[in-house]
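Objective 1b. Sequence-to-structure analysis of DcrB-related protein.
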Amino acid sequence: MSSFFDRYGCIARHIKKDRAMNLLTHSNNGDSEFTFVVSRSSAQPDDKVHTVAAKKARELEITLTDFHLESSQMLEVDGYPAVELFYQFKNDNRIIYQRQTLILLDDAVAGKKMVSYVGTCPGEFSEYHQKQYQEIIQSIKFHRAK
């Protein structure tokens, strides 16, 4: 697992001013059994992470077929408050599981940013994939101005 994120460890280090997304895939058998997406977007100055996460869950419920929120929990990522959503939905008659961690960051130059980390598994989010996801989230370190 460490080699998976070691290759991509720089993702969380810089938050760009514009919207950006990175997609990483990992598979032992050639299929995309686990994907990890990092996306960044602008946020409002008065946004709070729990309200942004609630809004995101409502948007997912509207846009995804057979959406079901399994759990939602507050946590910290590199000292920042975050919310983790775990949910499932159907895509092409296949159940897809996603675990999404949302973080709000303040940037003096670019303003407030939302960073979203999404792990996706078709069929099930196995213990192995859960461990991969948690190792990635726990390894995130944000660049802080000195």
